[in-house]
Amino acid sequence: MIVFRKLLSSTRLTIVGMALLAVGSSLIYGNPAEVPVWVLVAPLSVLAVNLVAAIATNPRINRRPGLLMFHIGLLAVVVLVGVGRLTHYEAHVEMVDGQQFTIDDAIDVKSGPFHSGNLDQVQFAQGPFTVDYQPMLVRGSTRSHIRVRNEKGEWQARVIGDDTPLVIDGYRFYTTFNKGFTPVLTWLPDAGAPVTGTVNMPSYPLFDFKQSNSWTPVGGREIKFWLQLDTGLRQDAAWTLDVRRTGSVLVVNDGDRRVELKPGDETVLDGGRLRYEQLRQWMGYKIFFDPTLRWLFLASILGVIGLASHYWRTFTAVHAATDKITALNSASSAALTNKG
Amino acid sequence: MFSEATEMPWLWAGLAAYALAAFYAFRGIAQQRVLAAGTRSYEGLVLLFMVCGVVLLAVSLGVRWVRIGHGPFVNLFELLVSQLFSLGTIYTLVYWRLPLLRPGAIVSLPIIWVLGLWVLMIEPKDAPFPPTYYNDWLWAHVGFGKIFLAFSMVGSGLAGVILLRWIGWFASWLRHLPADDVLDRYAWRFMVLALVFDSLMLIAGAVWAQDAWGRFWSWDALETSAFLTWLALGGAIHARLAWNVPIRLGAAFILIIFVVAFMTYFSTPFISEAVHKGVI
Ligand code: HEM
After folding, report:
1. pLDDT tens digit string along B70-102?
2. Sign, CA torsion B107/B109/B110/B112
């Protein structure tokens, strides 16, 4: 039993755990799909048990406040990361200019089994956005204009983008490189009520060369088209992606017939008319939620403060001891000299 | 106002000053063999040339900053020059304040010079500044990282002296320097300080990554490599507590950690075209 307890709290086990963690993190490098998360969880569990045992039994760690604080900080980080994985939420959403966010718009949702939050109460609406590009299509600043509903129910304008996410109730919305154009189309059937819809075209300028898509209005048949854009894009010059400076022609393929529509134009198709209302933009957001973020920060900072104070104490103690020895030495050599 | 032609001579002059500092460090140690131990007049010259090098590099960096409109954070050339500046600055301070550690200069200054030679082989192109680099955490992350690398370089300098002593020819050369156990103690002191700053660098980097890319950690090439460096350092510190690790083995370990840290800085980000670029 004692042997077992000694083993559990031994710093040799720490080294084994660390070596396993090094192997695990090399395996998980780049997050390959086939590597299970156990390659990290297993060594971290060994280290956590080892650390708890060491803190409980080893005075070399539990009698030194700074060192103790550091190791507890490490333990807290590991536990918090675990809690974060169980409670996190990640997703993407494509927001068209004019659209209000609803939870049903979220796609590619990945969340921990214990996730709970108020995403369904998050209220914001997309406005226009611009993205600056330097020559050779190097992306610069993104400025996404949005409106957020505050507690009083008023809509407030905000600009977000790049490293400035929109944060509501802990949900963080980040603009991404994924964004593009959205034609607004109306189908006016020969019989029945008109239907208006939006179609998000492939990401721009990434898929500049294949801006084609199709739309099937409710009760209608599939309409295939592509979008001819005049955004002013040039490889060799700076340029801004902005729908307000973009000309567009919707090219509809109706069997052998090819029809070009400018915003406001319409054409007669089999069973009704198609109107190209206007061009808008869509922005792809990444949604991220992890309730542990601020605690993680706190635990890690406190840990480092503990480590720093541990070394501060150690070094100043060593200095004091060295000074003492030097003083003693010089006193004794002075005594010898006097005698001589 | 400025062109590449304006900043390069300052860079070359700075590197020349570092080279002279390294030369005098070697010459001083070599002379000590024949002169009385403790003759250290050469140290003033080393210090003088280090200070000159730091100032000249600062001018080179400043001129470039004004020319291209952003700090030296983006491509390999900029990273190398800014490291030459920061390693030089921190090393100069250590050299000035801690005379006992000065012998390590014969290893640390050549390490700085490896970067110097490398930078001479790279085209001083400028690269666009990614929008996420305007974040204030960039400064904390980069600052802590620079202190971390500089402290581990100081540790490596002392570890290098311990290992050089093993080689017969150097043994007599380095005879007058402090004993191995003294060098070992100081080397590990700098390594544990390096661990403090490495930890801070990782924290600041994670906060920045959360702002910039919407996640604080995702085991990309750079993150994995930086984590392994941190773990290796923690592992080595524990190994010394758990076993009676021979001084030379410990010194070899310090050098290994430094090499891993060095690769994390100067090769990993450029091998994998990471998210840092943000194209399209
Ligand atoms: C997770 C399991 C861990 C356990 C059980 C553990 C245990 C211990 C113990 C018992 C000590 C005091 C030993 C002594 O003075 O004889 C110690 C010191 C220390 N540990 Fe850990 N540790 C763990 C993880 C880590 C990690 C991951 C790091 C950093 C990467 C770390 C860094 C340190 C440092 C810097 C010291 C101080 C050494 C000194 O005073 O010179 N530990 N640890």
Report:
1. 878 888 888 889 999 999 999 999 999 988 888
2. positive
Q: What is the pTM of this model?
A: 0.89
CA distance B50 to B56: 10
Q: Give the CA dihedral A106, A202, A181, A150, nearest 10 degrees.
A: 20
Cα–Cα distance, A107 to A113 (Å, whole number): 17
Mark yes or no for CB contact A134/B241 under 8 Å: no
Distance CA B15, CA B54 (A): 9
Domain spans in chain A, listed from the N-terminal domain onward: 2-88+291-332, 90-289
B40 interfaces chain A, CB cutoff of 8 Å: no
Q: Is B203 on the interface with A (CB under 8 A)?
A: yes
CA distance to B4, B61, B76, B129, per residue, from B72 (Å)? 14, 7, 9, 10
Q: Measure in Å the smallest separation between the Cα of B14 and chain A Cα atoms.
A: 32
Contact call for A15 and B235, based on CB within 8 A? yes
- The two tokens of residue A28 are 């998980």
List pLDDT tens digits, range A232-250.
Answer: 888 888 899 999 999 999 9
Give the count of beta carbons closer than 10 Å to the beta carbon of residue A318: 12
Instruction: Name the region of B98 (left: φ>0; alpha: ψ -120 to 50; beta: rest).
Output: beta
Give the whole-angstrom CA distance, residue A11 versus residue A25.
21
Enter the tokens of residue A177. 């490189």
The whole-number pLDDT of residue A336 equals 47
Q: Which residue has the higher pLDDT, B3 or A36?
A: A36
Cα distances from B278 to residues A94, A191, B69, in angstroms, run 19, 49, 19
From the number of C-beta atoms within 10 Å of its C-beta (0-12, 13-18, 19+), residue B146 rates as: buried
What's the 3-state SS for A257-295?
A: EEEEECCCCEEEECCEEEEEEEEEEEEEEEEEECCCHHH
Tens digit of each residue's pLDDT (9 = 90 or more) over B49-78: 999 999 999 998 988 888 888 878 888 888
Q: B233 vs chain A: nearest CA distance in angstroms?
A: 11
H-helix segments, chain A: 2-9, 11-28, 38-57, 59-62, 65-87, 293-339
pLDDT tens, position by position, A320-332: 665 555 555 545 5
CB distance A170 to A255 below 8 Å: no
Reading the block at residue A143, the tokens are 């400025």
